[in-house]
Amino acid sequence: MRAQKTELPKTMETDELTTYEAVWGEIHVEYDVFKKRFDVTPYLKGLPNDRDPCPHWGIIVKGRGKIIYDGKEESFQAGDVYYAPPGHTGVFEEGTELWEFSPQDKLQKTMEVIANNMTAMRKVTLGI
Prior knowledge:
By secondary structure, this protein is of the alpha+beta class. It has one helix spanning 104-126; strands at residues 10-13, 17-24, 27-34, 38-39, 56-62, 64-69, 72-77, 81-84, 88-92, 97-103. A six-stranded antiparallel beta sheet has the order 1-2-3-10-5-8. Strands 4-9-6-7 form a four-stranded antiparallel beta sheet, with no helix packed on it.
């Protein structure tokens, strides 16, 4: 299988982030464009230790970010490949674009929690 980022379905469009993604077999393929600095940590609340238990492998196309896990912090920039082990969180700077690959079964559980937290945070922001 192959795809350009624009050939993947756009599945999320917010002020902070645009996501294109698909599932190929057991692997989730994702291309993210960060329009603003994005700290995923608040959206992980409710997962074990409020961290992402799903591993990810990725390639940074543009920009920079960092992952935090096991008391360590690793920074990455355009041209780097990375591995985010289970139990991590991450921060991505404005203008960052990346490809990320994850096991679909584990990612699905994480994304359910993130979606619920995003909805709850929007309601609070809107005063609902």
